Amino acid sequence: MRRRTTRTLIAALVAMLAPVASACAGPSAAGDDKVIRIGAWHPLTGALASFGIPERAGADAYFDSVNAQGGINGRKIEWIVKDNASDPQQTVQIARRLVDQDGVVAIVATNGTSQTRATFPFVLERSKVPILNTLGGDASWYQPARDGLFGLQTLYEDQAAALGDWVVRDGAKKVLVVHSDPAAFVNVSKQVAPAALKTDPSVQVKRLKVKFATTDYSPVISKVKAQKPDAVVLILAAAEAATYMKEAKLQGLDIPSYGYAPVAAQATLTLAGKAAEGFKSVQLVKSPNDDDPAVKEFRKAMAKYEPGQPADFITLWGWEAAKAFVEIAETIDGPVTSEALTRAYQNARQVDTGVGPVLNFSPSRHLGTRDVQKVVARDGRWESQGDFFTPPVRD
Question: What is the pLDDT of residues 214-239, one digit of tens each?
């Protein structure tokens, strides 16, 4: 009697636990035919929230527009974004929740170099969940290619190489690179000279180091004047670049100035005002002010789905990352799993979002592009100049 009762209780317990076990098997396993669940981390609070909030808004706008049209091959996109406040340790904990609790099949359109790097051991190596279209990174991420990691942001070093080539082609013979003193800025600034010399071996390139977060650029401009350059390349944060421009105008320094993508922001134009007129920079995407049909689509979607956010470069970064993911995921025939996404990216060729460079991936090439877009500040807005171009190959 006791044995029969025990068997009955075990059978009942198994029956009760079956639905729970099924639910714990992971959202992607249970709802793969209806939902593609992906995740990301962004700095939605803290010092870098001015980047994280608009980047998320741009990606959200694109994912919302795709879902409104039925999703990816009939599957709706669920993009789970968590605030990491730019902290690497918090990012690792967020990555664990996204993978273990939320059951995401990929991390998509996320932000931050040190923050994302901290998650590699758990996300890429242990969990085998790919990180796709991340913004940030350095050459070591892609040389050699790292399993499961795919990017679309032209590295800062390549942006500097593009500036070295551009400034010389514009006729400069004496170039001065003004850069902040942290190692990240120094390393990028060193890439201007080799590219410039490849274009014109007779050019002279010098560097001027400035203490990070400097607010008084009067002595800096005096030093620039003493060097008598034909052109200046700024490897600075946007606010400092704006301060440089205002002080240069105040002191009557009228020489062409160039900057890399972090400088080509609306904040630079707002802070610098008329002093920014004619400033040249490279960007990762086309100007959000362009009349290009793909850019118009972006502005229309932002107005509809994210009316509180401006349609600027940062929101366009998020839009491009989301659009590239969707275009590649649409090539998958069958369940959209981590493994399927990794294979799809390895086979992705000529991915054209319309707002950024054409992307090409392969099993050995996990950074989709080295190209940049030239932009120029005119009448308080950025305008694209020409098409995307490839900088000289760095040594």
Answer: 999 999 999 999 999 999 999 999 99
